[in-house]
Amino acid sequence: MMATPARIAVDLMLATSKAVVPAIGTAWQYAKVEMIPPMTHSFVHGAIGKNFEKSAAQFGQGIISGIEGRIKEMDMEVERVRKEKEAAIKAAMDQAAAAAKAAAQNKLDEKKRQDEAKAKEAQKPKEEKKPEAKAAAPPPAPKPEAKKAKPAKKKEPARKKEPKKNRRDEKKGKPPKK
Asked: What integer pLDDT is reported at residue 156 of this predicted model?
């Protein structure tokens, strides 16, 4: 399965964040010892400095856990889409199987009906069939025509309307400028 560009970018951010945390910690320890002015040791090494270090560590871990959560969401979305596709395929297969089963049942029912019809015809004796009495009856007499058909009138072709005349057609010269 190919990773999306967004997933690649988030993985890169996570790896970078995890790699930067120890480097920042080392830099802070060096700065705390070497770079602070002599009169501020109690400030940096005291309760305020420890609270600052704790807040910075929580902030860094919050970023890392947020990135990891985003990766989990992406993975869950991919899994959800995969499961939906599998469910759709399974539903289509079930529907096709049900349609095939119904078609086979219809075919079987039709064959039973045909077999029953043949069995009924075979049971009837041929002697019981009556000859048609209607064949001996004389054909009906033709009806006299009440009115003679009139010859069809020919339609004249439609005439084109003549365009309205205006003064421009009568006048000589050019039409007015707009």
From this structure: 72
